[in-house]
Every structure is written in structure tokens, then in C-alpha cells.
């Protein structure tokens, strides 16, 4: 698609607003759709003996709590990850452009150091995105890992958490969330950019000569491969986020809580639920890139990646 055909000019306020909206559409619904997998994963992270397997966990939840309880935490997930998607995708595009034009002298240098730019841009975007996500992640984890659930909906959860711990209760997991999400997003965006670049380099047709559907297909494949890497890189921190949000004692420092929890679960415990997370994150990441780049193509913007 030529520049003259685009409805939105690149690197304008409208462009970043469109990317932000694309991030909301890509992240909120996809994370919400895998709530049953996330529910079983979080419970196994907190207590590895609770279920024999992921299927066993889902069946026991249906039997003991009802099929609707498979979506425990879906409200907080939808709100939290919609906000995070806005900051992550919109912020990534913004910071990528910022670092490409301020830290290097020209486009040639920007291309040479593109991996570093991808890493810095994704880390910067995720830092701010997590500030928006953290309160809802705290409610979601608390709701999913307590039986009966800590709350029935987001509003009730916010009221109860604020009454018990104040504003600090919403952000007691921010440090492990950053430790989980920033490496995850750095891996997600950087590996995606480089994987997609490698795919295009090996195809007989140049990207600009490919149809939107062909480009989106490349994004889907690149997204799934990137998602597998993301799941492995960020899983130990994901376990700690679940454990800390559920088990951190009031007034306990992050360092003391982390040390106590690690002593109880050990190194092996940091990998509880990895298999389901690889499946979940791989699927999530691929569909997020599929949706995000489909949205960009629909409004006349180029898909992500060289």
C-alpha cells in the first residue's frame, strides 16, 4: 500500500492514537478469552498439589464451583489488560520512534542498532503500562487464588482491597510485575521484530509487494514463535507475582516476602504451570499480533516489522 493511500499519516498524534486503540483491541479480549487457563495456572502456582493436571483442574472447578467459575477474574482481566495493551502497543510505537530519532544520527544507524532500540522502546512502554495494569492484576490474582473467591466483581474487589490495605494493596505486586512483564515485553517485541524480519528475508516476495493477508499471516507465525520465548523468560516472575499477591503479609517488605516464598517453593517451584503458560502465551501473543496488525492494515497503516 502506498503512502498516498493511507488514511492516517505515520508518526502523527492520530497514528499513535490508532496504535493505542489497536493495543486495547488486541490485548483486552485475548487475555479475557483464556481466563480459564489462567485460573488453573494461577491456582497451581500457589498450590501445585491442588490439581493433578490442567484438565483435572478445569473439571474440578466445573464440578465443585460451576462452569461459570472458570471465568473467575475475567472482569479484572479485561479492564487491566485493555489498559496495559494501550500503554504497551501505543507506547512501543512512540518510544521506538523517539529512540530512533534522538539516540542515533540517521536511518542507517537506526537500522544498525535496531535491536537495542526495540529493547529500550518495549521496556519503556511496559514500565508505564504495568502501572495501569497492576491494580487489576492484584484483584484478579486475589480473586482467582482464594476459595471462595475474594470478590465477585471488580468493583467489590477494589472496595475490599482498599478497605483492607489502602492504595498500597493495589501496588504491592508492582515490583515482581515489572520483573515479569518488562523482560516478557522486551522479548515479545524484539523477538517478534527480528523473527518477522527473518521470515520476510527468506520469502521470494518483498513485504511491500505482499497483500495485507500475507503480511498478517507472517505476523501470526512470528507472534507464536515470539510467544514461546516470552513464556519461558517471564515464567519465574509470573509465579512470584501470583504467590506475592496471594501470600504477602501486611507490612512485609518485598525482599522478605520473596525470600520466604522462595524458601518454601524452591527453584523447581518457580516453574509450576510452565506448560500451560507456554500454550497460553504462545496463543495469546500470536493472536495479539494478528489482531493488532489486522487493525493497522484495516485503517491503512503498514503492518509491524521490516
Automatic annotation (TrEMBL):
<dbReference type="GO" id="GO:0005375">
    <property type="term" value="F:copper ion transmembrane transporter activity"/>
</dbReference>
<dbReference type="InterPro" id="IPR018108">
    <property type="entry name" value="MCP_transmembrane"/>
</dbReference>
<keyword id="KW-0812">Transmembrane</keyword>
<dbReference type="GO" id="GO:0006878">
    <property type="term" value="P:intracellular copper ion homeostasis"/>
</dbReference>
<protein>
    <recommendedName>
        <fullName>Mitochondrial phosphate carrier protein</fullName>
    </recommendedName>
</protein>
<keyword id="KW-0999">Mitochondrion inner membrane</keyword>
<keyword id="KW-0677">Repeat</keyword>
<keyword id="KW-1133">Transmembrane helix</keyword>
<feature type="repeat" description="Solcar">
    <location>
        <begin position="14"/>
        <end position="98"/>
    </location>
</feature>
<keyword id="KW-0496">Mitochondrion</keyword>
<dbReference type="InterPro" id="IPR044677">
    <property type="entry name" value="SLC25A3/Pic2/Mir1-like"/>
</dbReference>
<comment type="similarity">
    <text>Belongs to the mitochondrial carrier (TC 2.A.29) family.</text>
</comment>
<keyword id="KW-0813">Transport</keyword>
<dbReference type="Pfam" id="PF00153">
    <property type="entry name" value="Mito_carr"/>
</dbReference>
<feature type="repeat" description="Solcar">
    <location>
        <begin position="214"/>
        <end position="298"/>
    </location>
</feature>
<dbReference type="GO" id="GO:0005315">
    <property type="term" value="F:phosphate transmembrane transporter activity"/>
</dbReference>
<dbReference type="InterPro" id="IPR023395">
    <property type="entry name" value="MCP_dom_sf"/>
</dbReference>
<feature type="repeat" description="Solcar">
    <location>
        <begin position="113"/>
        <end position="198"/>
    </location>
</feature>
<dbReference type="GO" id="GO:1990547">
    <property type="term" value="P:mitochondrial phosphate ion transmembrane transport"/>
</dbReference>
<keyword id="KW-0472">Membrane</keyword>
<dbReference type="GO" id="GO:0005743">
    <property type="term" value="C:mitochondrial inner membrane"/>
</dbReference>
<comment type="function">
    <text>Transport of phosphate groups from the cytosol to the mitochondrial matrix.</text>
</comment>
Amino acid at each position: 500500500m502506498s503512502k498516498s493511500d493511507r488514511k492516517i499519516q505515520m508518526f502523527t498524534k492520530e497514528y499513535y492514537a490508532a496504535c493505542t486503540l489497536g493495543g486495547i483491541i488486541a490485548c483486552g479480549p485475548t487475555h479475557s478469552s483464556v481466563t480459564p487457563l489462567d485460573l488453573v495456572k494461577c491456582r497451581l502456582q500457589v498450590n501445585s498439589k491442588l490439581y493433578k493436571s490442567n484438565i483435572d483442574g478445569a473439571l474440578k472447578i466445573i464440578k465443585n464451583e460451576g462452569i461459570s467459575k472458570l471465568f473467575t477474574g475475567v472482569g479484572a482481566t479485561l479492564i487491566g489488560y485493555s489498559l496495559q495493551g494501550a500503554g504497551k502497543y501505543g507506547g512501543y510505537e512512540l518510544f521506538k520512534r523517539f529512540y530512533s530519532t534522538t539516540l542515533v544520527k540517521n536511518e542507517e544507524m537506526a537500522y544498525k542498532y535496531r535491536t537495542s532500540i526495540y529493547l529500550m522502546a518495549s521496556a519503556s512502554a511496559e514500565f508505564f503500562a504495568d502501572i495501569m495494569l497492576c491494580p487489576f492484576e492484584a484483584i484478579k490474582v486475589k480473586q482467582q487464588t482464594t476459595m471462595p473467591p475474594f470478590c465477585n466483581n471488580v468493583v467489590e474487589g477494589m472496595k475490599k482491597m482498599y478497605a483492607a490495605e489502602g492504595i498500597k494493596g493495589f501496588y504491592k505486586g508492582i515490583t515482581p510485575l515489572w520483573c515479569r512483564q518488562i523482560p516478557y515485553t522486551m522479548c515479545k517485541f524484539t523477538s517478534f521484530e527480528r523473527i518477522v524480519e527473518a521470515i520476510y528475508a527468506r520469502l521470494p516476495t518483498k513485504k511491500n509487494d505482499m497483500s495485507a493477508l500475507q503480511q498478517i499471516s507472517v505476523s501470526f507465525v512470528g507472534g507464536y514463535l515470539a510467544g514461546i520465548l516470552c513464556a519461558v523468560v517471564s515464567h519465574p516472575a509470573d509465579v512470584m507475582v501470583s504467590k506475592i499477591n496471594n501470600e504477602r503479609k501486611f507490612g512485609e517488605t518485598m525482599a522478605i516476602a520473596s525470600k520466604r516464598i522462595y524458601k518454601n517453593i524452591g527453584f523447581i517451584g518457580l516453574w509450576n504451570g510452565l506448560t500451560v503458560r507456554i500454550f497460553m502465551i504462545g496463543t495469546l501473543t500470536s493472536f495479539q499480533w494478528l489482531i493488532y496488525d489486522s487493525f493497522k492494515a484495516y485503517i491503512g497503516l503498514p503492518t509491524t516489522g521490516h
